[in-house]
Amino acid sequence: MSTSQGAITCKVCWGLGMTVKLEEIQVDPPKSGEVRVKMLCASICHTDVSGIQGSPYVNGFPLVPGHEGVGVVETVGDEVKNLKEGDMVIPTYIGECGHCRNCVSGKTNLCLTYPFRITGFMPDNTSRMSCRGKKLQHTWTCATWSEYTVVNANYLLKVDPGINLAHASFISCGFSTGYGAAWKEAQVESGSSVAVFGLGAVGLGAISGAKMLGATKIIGVDTNEMKREKGKAFGMTDFINPQDSDKPPSELVKELSDGFGVDFSFECTGVPSLISESLAATNMGTGKAITIGAPNEPIVPFNHTAILAGRTLKGSVFGGLKTMSDLSIVADKCQKEEFPLQELFTHEVPLTDISKAFDLLKEPNCVKVVIKI
């Protein structure tokens, strides 16, 4: 690592189409309202994989991937009041101003002042990263697969410096997205029944949230038999492997829920067909399904009959969690070890071996790959 006129040269993983490689890049000093963060730990979300392949949620290339991680503040720009050098922080892709129409409504976490950005640039539409004279795009204001990144201070959550780094990375998106979907979006009720489609970090977070809110039947649905024990660790009561039956998953869920379906359902895979299945698995007239997974295509086929029968389908970004108000609560629970997050930690690679992480994701026993920086 070297510095030149305030810029930092560091190793970073960035994608161009189907390629991922390690490059020496320049990370500029923060501008007013921004912070430069020395990343300590990151992790891989399946959205990162689809983003590198050119999903509709990534605007273009070249791109510095990664939106999960934790680091320490290295440099503070002008006008930053709430952070200082040495603070431990989690980069996020949604801010919270507390004053805009959405923030004060209490109905959504999608702040209008500091929104979810897929442009690939900072709020002023410029970049702080470059490689061989070419500007690089930041993934969702985060760009965590880098030794250093620059983030607008309104997209950073300060956390306890003693927090487990890998666990902090897990709650920066995946686990918290599922947990928040049960807590904030669905508002799962005590004594209710729940189905969760896809038992990755997001799905296990949804199970954990449903358990916390008092759901008495929590059905996990996954084609990977190894997820059975993972689901139980987070509070799952029943497991369905759709490959064991010729029936559609929604019918299998109904068989475990008095034949009528569950009260709440969570689609955590992004597989288009499962959006309709997750909705059809809920009770007619009152069932509520939350779609969390991000499909590779912006338009997907949908079974209109399922929603016509009085069910509700709701989309979710970051599980409905507000960065300051809600993620801070999740971080506190993480610090107190109220979640079995060690069950998510299955593999670790250094940033220099980032390509190996993509192979590990294909392993049946893989839940989360930690990137040590």
Automatic annotation (TrEMBL):
Any one of the GO BP annotations: formaldehyde catabolic process
Residue ranges occupied by any Enoyl reductase (ER) domain in the UniProt entry: 17-371
One annotated GO molecular function: S-(hydroxymethyl)glutathione dehydrogenase [NAD(P)+] activity
GO cellular component, one term: cytosol
Pfam hit, one: ADH_N
SMART domains (UniProt xref): PKS_ER
Keywords: Metal-binding, NAD, Oxidoreductase, Zinc
Keyword Glycoprotein applies: no
CDD domains, sorted: liver_alcohol_DH_like
Cofactor(s) it depends on: Zn(2+)
Superkingdom assignment: Eukaryota
Family that this chain belongs to: Belongs to the zinc-containing alcohol dehydrogenase family. Class-IV subfamily.
Known partners and oligomeric status: Homodimer.
UniProt-recorded name of the protein: Alcohol dehydrogenase 1 isoform X2
Phylogenetic lineage: Eukaryota, Viridiplantae, Streptophyta, Embryophyta, Tracheophyta
